[in-house]
Write a structure and sequence with these properties.
Length: about 800
């Protein structure tokens, strides 16, 4: 092995060759290995095309890897930077590589000279990065340094540098990355600007970073003190530690632990929910069932009067109250964090950063001075302004509104001497109901007797959801009308079905807390009709748990879950090992392996585009395989190989199929790989409507009711406000399921359900009545579904299905089915 090699990435081959020639003249006789990755080939006339190509950069790195201890990559500008970054994911070798933010020509020369002296990779990189200093000093005209150049890091007259980075983590710059950026800047001057036209945002302003809105694939310009720029750039390069598909802290997950259940929600009015015995519907975000009296979290702190004007001569003193109040809030939050652990502590730390935001304090002070309002009112107005910005950004960012309000309430409480509303201190178990919960409230939850959480707002990634899952208590969010439930009303909270039932009958109270008998491995109706009950798994550990719960097989193996952390496609042997882990516990039983369902809510860096406008309707599921046929053929080879080595009965199915041609081609690909049974998921209305034709070419189908509902109702399955639409009881969805069931019966081919509806004991008899022959679910639902099915006959299921199909609303469908089943 030799010393350091250099890859020169340029849009122009001629520029790269000329720079290489210059470098060679600087080190006559020395053989510094320099590989060029420049230009994008030639056109029909043989003229060079300007451009860069990540694959070529990766090849150049690999070329040098055989003979070098390290590789420094120098690039010119714009897409060259992105190609170089992307190349790090594409390369096959594992030689250490540094991307230099140095100017291309000067950097190449400096690097070549230093490398020729046998310097280390770090030394070569440092020398390249400092290559402009001599020129700047000599010309004494520091304005000539390319201060405005967006990439790569360009030193400026004032000693600051500018560098462009790319957002690589799937969730973009959300709360956790924002906190990391603030910490990495270490108080040094650093501004971030979303390219092409964003406003500069100081790294110290957590509030503004929350509203930054940078998504995966976006370019961000970092400008500031060199060390801070490098530290923050490293965070971006590392994808904020979230390139494994799940953030290193689940505080603000980018991918829910498991795909969220669609809420079994129904339209309702707040007035209706207050009737005794009424049921509220929301989004179930943490499983389990609990029954207890309601304790309402007190209303947020009272809004300070807007009319309490502060005379001119006292405004300065009033504004000066803000900084000490903020400091006290920060200290209190940090003290809470120190008393907490895990996610709670991390969330509190992040909230402390929000409270410490100097921009926020400055903006509030400015309001006091300019508008003559009280400090408390200024905080209130400024926080509302921030909350509005976050809400307008929508999605996960909007879920951070509760955090801003929490900081607001704490600050206002300090400034006015009021108490901050908190978790009720009760000796008996209670269900906590709130508009939304923020860290300040939830920190104490673990120490309280709270047995379930219900909120009117919030989504699957809200703190309520995260903390409830961490505490292992059921939670329902987006339950409209919940704050109107009178205190002390006994409620049943079903965190899987997203249901909050007021005053449940005595019988239900008892059975809710009762564990059904363990599943004995035989799914059947009261009359002995078999209904296979299988498990949904994402890997070997799930499979072992499913086998322990006596699942009759695996109805859905989400293979993409094995590879969420991979930047590059896993090799066939790696895939074989992952699949064998799932097949091994199920020898002799059916295992339905789903090919990669990459895209939308489960992006895989190696398979999905980062910049789709509308990923749920984009290149996801089987469509990825159509775009990258090798991905599918490698996976089918690996599945066939794993199946040959284990004793499970392997069936393979494709996600997101919309046309019969796709189904036919998929079956052909499976057969070619030696897979005997091939099917498809029915997740699109198109596939459901064509189920007869689909079943003519496949061996089986499985209804992915999560996506089928989302696409039928045109409602994002992760959206809390759309929970009422994302309900498999919606008659439109039931009728599509009925169409598929009828097609299955006519063809004598199996029809499974592997969406979350398959694990809901309430709808299970209806699904069976509609023609479904197997249900697949999370292993912990097996016992409840099995117990329910044992109480109904095939004829009763058919009648319940007929009644539900005749309904015109989801509420009516539930009621009709319940009535038919007695
Ligand atoms: C579904 O859509 O119902 C399904 C089972 O697939 P996933 O939840 O993985 O998208
Ligand atoms: Mg799906």
């Amino acid at each position: 092995m030799g010393a350091v090699g250099i890859v020169a990435v340029s849009h122009s081959l001629r520029l790269a060759e000329a720079a290489q020639e210059l470098a060679a003249q600087m080190v006559p006789g020395a053989a510094v290995p320099i590989a060029l990755a420049a230009g994008a080939g030639t056109d029909a006339d043989g003229s060079p095309i300007l451009g860069t190509d990540a694959t070529r950069v990766a090849e150049a790195i690999d070329e040098l890897a055989g003979t070098c201890d390290g590789v420094l990559v120098l690039m010119d500008l714009g897409s060259a930077v992105m190609s170089a970054e992307f190349a790090l994911e594409l390369r096959a070798s594992d030689v250490p590589v540094r991307l230099a933010s140095a100017p291309f020509v000067e950097g190449l020369l400096a690097a070549a000279v230093t490398a020729a002296q046998g310097a280390s990779l770090d030394e070569v990189a440092a020398e390249a990065n400092g290559a402009l200093v001599a020129k700047s000093a000599q010309l004494e005209d520091e304005q000539q340094t390319p201060a405005a150049a967006p990439t790569p890091a360009a030193p400026r007259a004032d000693g600051e540098v500018v560098r462009t980075v790319v957002v690589r983590n799937p969730a973009g710059v959300h709360a956790r990355p924002a906190a990391l950026i603030g910490q990495a800047a270490q108080g040094a001057p650093l501004r971030l600007r979303l390219l092409p036209a964003g406003e500069p945002v100081p790294a110290a302003s957590m509030m503004r970073l929350l509203a930054f809105g940078a998504r995966r694939g976006d370019e961000v310009e970092l400008e500031g003190e060199r060390g801070a720029v490098e530290r923050v750039a490293a965070l971006f390069d590392d994808g904020f530690g979230e390139m494994d598909g799940a953030p290193s802290t689940p505080a603000v997950p980018s991918v829910p632990e498991a795909p969220s259940a669609p809420a079994t929600a129904a339209a309702q009015s707040p007035a209706a929910v207050l009737d005794p015995g009424a049921t509220l519907h929301g989004l179930g975000v943490s499983p389990g069932v609990a029954v207890a009296p309601v304790a309402q979290l007190g209303e947020a702190i009272a809004e300070p009067a807007a009319t309490d004007g502060v005379p001119e001569d006292r405004r300065e003193a009033e504004a000066a109250r803000l900084a000490p109040a903020a400091a006290e809030v920060v200290a209190a939050l940090r003290a809470d964090a120190a008393r907490s652990e895990g996610e709670t502590a991390q969330i509190l730390e992040a909230t402390a950063l929000l409270a410490a935001d100097p921009e926020f304090a400055a903006a509030a002070s400015a309001r006091v001075r300019a508008e003559g309002v009280s400090a408390a009112r200024a905080v209130w107005d400024e926080a509302e302004e921030q909350a509005r910005l976050l809400r307008d950004l929508g999605g996960r960012t909007a879920e951070r509104v509760a955090d801003v309000r929490s900081v607001r309430d704490r600050l206002v409480a300090r400034l006015t001497g009021a108490d901050v509303p908190g978790i009720p201190d009760r000796a008996e178990p209670f269900v906590l109901v709130a508009r939304d919960l923020a860290p300040a409230e939830t920190a104490a939850l673990g120490r309280s007797r709270c047995v379930a959480l219900v909120t009117e707002e919030g989504g699957p990634t809200s703190h309520t959801a995260i903390l409830a899952r961490a505490l292992g208590i059921p939670a329902v969010v987006g339950a409209t009308g919940a704050t109107s439930i009178p205190a002390e009303t006994v409620v049943l909270v079903d965190g899987e079905g997203g249901i909050v039932q007021l005053d449940p009958p005595e019988r239900q109270r008892a059975t809710a807390s009762e564990e059904p008998p363990a599943f004995d491995g035989r799914g059947e109706l009261a009359d002995g009709t078999p209904v296979a009950l299988r498990a949904n798994v994402g890997g070997a550990a799930d499979a072992r748990a499913a086998a322990a719960a006596h699942a009759q097989g695996i109805g859905l193996f989400r293979t993409e879950f094995c590879f969420l952390d991979r930047a590059a496609e896993p090799t066939v042997p790696e895939q074989v090992a992952a699949y064998r882990g799932v097949l091994a516990p199920f020898a002799g039983r059916t295992v339905v392996v789903r090919t990669l369902d990459a895209g939308s809510d489960k992006p895989l860096p190696f398979a999905t585009a980062a910049d789709e406008e509308n990923p749920a309707l984009g290149v996801r599921g089987l469509r990825v395989a159509v775009a990258h046929p090798a991905l599918l053929s490698h996976q089918l080879t690996a599945i066939a190989d794993a199946a040959a080595q284990e004793g499970a009965e392997v069936e393979v199915m494709a996600p997101m199929v919309a046309t019969v041609d796709e189904a036919r081609d998929f079956v052909a690909a499976c057969r070619a790989a030696g897979i005997a049974r091939a099917g498809i998921m029915i997740e699109t209305p198109a596939a459901a409507l064509l189920s007869a034709e689909m079943l003519a070419v496949v061996d089986f189908v499985s209804l992915g009711t999560n996506d089928l509902t989302q696409y039928t109702m045109a409602a994002d399955r992760l959206s809390a406000p759309l929970g009422a639409l994302n309900d498999p009881w919606q008659p439109a969805v039931l009728r599509l399921i009925g169409t598929v069931g009828a097609a299955g019966r006519a063809r004598g081919k199996p029809v499974g359900v592997c969406g979350e509806a398959g694990g809901d004991p309430a709808i299970a008899p209806v699904l069976v009545g509609l023609g479904v022959t197997s249900l697949s679910m999370t292993a912990r639902s097996l016992a409840r579904v099995a117990a329910r099915l044992r109480t109904v006959t095939a004829e009763e299921c058919r009648r319940a299905a007929e009644a539900a199909l005749g309904a015109s609303t989801a509420v009516e469908a539930r009621a009709a089915a319940a009535a038919a089943l007695g």
